[in-house]
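Minutes, project huddle
Topic: does the predicted pose make sense with magnesium ion bound?
PN asked that the exact inputs be recorded in the minutes so nobody has to dig through chat later. Recorded below.
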Amino acid sequence: MKPITKLNRSDMDLRGVIENSAGGISICFFNNKGGVGKTTLCANFAAELALNFDAKVLVIDADPQCNLTQYVLPEEDVNDIYSQQDPETIFSIIRPLRSGKGYEIELPTRKSEKFGVDIIIGDPRLALEEDLLAQDWRDARSGGIRGIRTTFVFAELVKNAREKNYDFIVFDIGPSLGAINRSVLLSVDAFIVPMNIDVFSVWSLRNIGQTIATWKKSLDIGLSMAEEPTEVTELAPRGKLRFIGYVTQQHKERTGYDKIDGEDGPTKVKRKVKAYEAVGAKIPKEIEHYFKDLYASPDITPHLGDVKHLGGLIQRSQLASEPLLTVSGPGTASRGQAREIYRGLVRALIKNLQAAKLFGA
Ligand SMILES: Nc1ncnc2c1ncn2[C@@H]1O[C@H](COP(=O)(O)OP(=O)(O)OP(=O)(O)O)[C@@H](O)[C@H]1O
Ligand SMILES: [Mg+2]
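Predicted holo structure (tokens), as shared on screen:
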């Protein structure tokens, strides 16, 4: 497919990297802090990969809030689907496990024409499965095969999607460190951390780093004690959950002017937000401190880029269920800027995936 926006020569090379790779890279956007722009980033990253880099992308809404689904599908479709008694959703993947029937083989995908991706839509019923996943996690940690099977339910989904030749399999999850998110994270190759620049985000980096390390350790112990080692080898995901980069975001308007009294009366000076700058300066070190052991490769450039406050463009894009890349009409003056930003993010991600040898792995 022809790119929506013009690609330069090195972008065309990156497009070639995707085309010639074995594909099937699974990525999750995650931060333990809510409202940092995970869903917006996930959807628009996916659209840039699909519409400009011609990648075959599957997005999976594993957040029971279903924000991703609402974003990438037209409102009428969303209303029709969720008015049904029992729509096919991500819940269809989990349900057979509850009744002890093993994994669901069919992927319940739909198309988002505007974003150019396939989607497995979210489901509020997923929240009811936290209990099952939590119980079975305890079992998995002590080597129980049932628990391991449940824990790897999303790994099986990823495996299926790889067989369907998706280049990227991208999960959006909610902000908790609960059982669903654990199961998703332990199934993917890599995670990206979208974050705000504030002190709470630094706390959440600490939470994520520590929690993921603990999960991985517990799972390794569980797998080593497994009742049926051959089945475990088949079940264990290819993904080893590595950190592939972070994206800083600036959702509050930081620009503006302050009045300062000078010798010649008051003058307007560009506003400086001291706390913001101080926290921002600390972030690279904090990332390294908490994620170093999880780096996909020592050669990655962890900061994938910075997303500016895109104000009206975001609302317009949500309203139209259309990516930032293509949405038009009133309020879309910053679309060119958004295109630049997302192009930069995708370039940086592909380079990191190359550095981590995840292409063709
Ligand atoms: N670049 C941006 N500029 C301005 N507003 C943005 C930007 N990105 C996201 N937002 C707004 O911030 C809000 C939160 O974004 P989003 O839903 O993507 O966050 P989230 O991290 O997925 O939230 P949750 O933790 O609830 O899943 C949304 O209302 C969205 O419109
Ligand atoms: Mg979200």
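Observations noted during the meeting:
- Residues 38-39, 63, 67, 172 surround magnesium ion (ligand 2) (CB under 6 Å).
- Residues 255 and 272 are 8 Å apart (CA to CA).
No decisions taken; revisit at the next huddle.
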